Amino acid sequence: MTHRQRLTMIAVTVIAALGLGFAGAGPASAAPRAAAAAPPVTALATPVTGTADNGSFAGTFTPTTFTTQGDKVLATGVLTGTVSDVSGAPIGEVTRTVSMPVTVAAVTCQVLNLVLGPLHLDLLGLVVDLNQVHLVITAVQAAGNLLGNLLCAITHLLDGTPTAGGLAALLNAILALLGQL
């Protein structure tokens, strides 16, 4: 394996390990897998960088389609960029179609939004004046946020359960719409 091939493999492995972050989507129903990949929508190009002991990679990943594998959503797209040695001198260009897992970014749920108007109490000579109070409690759903996960789950009890297929279908529809612009 040449030095260039090794750097390319390191870059692709690092990128695949990092995955991509996409905002969470609401409930959706399962949908069939897309038949053909759409042309890349360059507005969705995500910068990708990586380093190794013997060089670095800098480029972009542009998703073309979303698919499912079990209960996971995968983004398939075009990875383009430059592989450089330790001194920063370019040693090769990369243009490959790759698939990587999509991770859902932290989701927030509004648990309580309470607005109390101004209050004036006169209790046997004790006067209490209170201006407007606006109390907002938001739960953040993410790994390790036990209370946030629990409160978001309770908040969405009556919603449908999102599926990987439904999320992939929704993301493909968005890509198709952006491709028409």
TrEMBL record:
Signal peptide: 1-30
Keywords of this entry: Signal
Name the record gives this protein: ABC transporter substrate-binding protein
